[in-house]
Design a protein that fits this description.
Strand content: over 45%
Distance between the termini: 28 Å
Shape: globular
Number of strands: 7
Helix content: 10-25%
Largest sheet: 7 strands, mixed
Number of helices: 1
Structural class: alpha+beta
Radius of gyration: 17 Å
């Protein structure tokens, strides 16, 4: 099942490391789909010999992404992702995520419980799988 309907960069290279992106997410019936317009900044630094990667996002507005009829615009978003080489286990990575948004509307408790019990673990597993494939992917570029 595809969880997103559209994702694109609206503007890139702002201040060197910041983009503005659009993301439209498919929600299960009877909920309306949600879309986001957000700043996305990526940073890489090294501290104590450990490489750290950060992806920071917050809600934005952009003229190339007007609100669409039938889609709920999420205008409260803040996320912080940190990915770092695990100094205790060579070849391993640690991943930290802090995420908050306001999806608007009344979402039934059963849907919230389903999301946290199935979507979040699925996301983490997909991230793990992508990380395991990254070395092979990057060597082909």
């Amino acid at each position: 099942m595809t969880s997103y309907l559209e994702i694109k960069t609206l503007e890139s290279g702002i201040g060197g490391h910041t983009d503005i992106a659009y993301w439209c997410v498919k929600f299960p019936w009877p909920l309306s789909n949600r879309d986001y317009v957000f700043y996305r900044r990526s940073l890489v630094r090294e501290e104590g010999g450990v490489k750290q990667r950060f992806i920071l996002s917050k809600a934005a507005q952009h003229p190339l992404a007007p609100e669409k009829s039938g889609v709920v615009r999420v205008d409260t978003l803040s996320s912080r992702f940190m990915i770092l080489d695990d100094p205790e286990k060579a070849g391993s990575t640690k991943y930290f995520m802090l995420y908050q948004d306001d999806l608007k509307g009344s979402i039934p408790t059963s849907v919230v419980n389903w999301a946290f019990s199935s979507l979040v673990p699925d996301f983490v597993e997909k991230m793990r799988s992508a990380c395991l494939k990254y070395a092979s992917y990057s060597s082909k570029k």
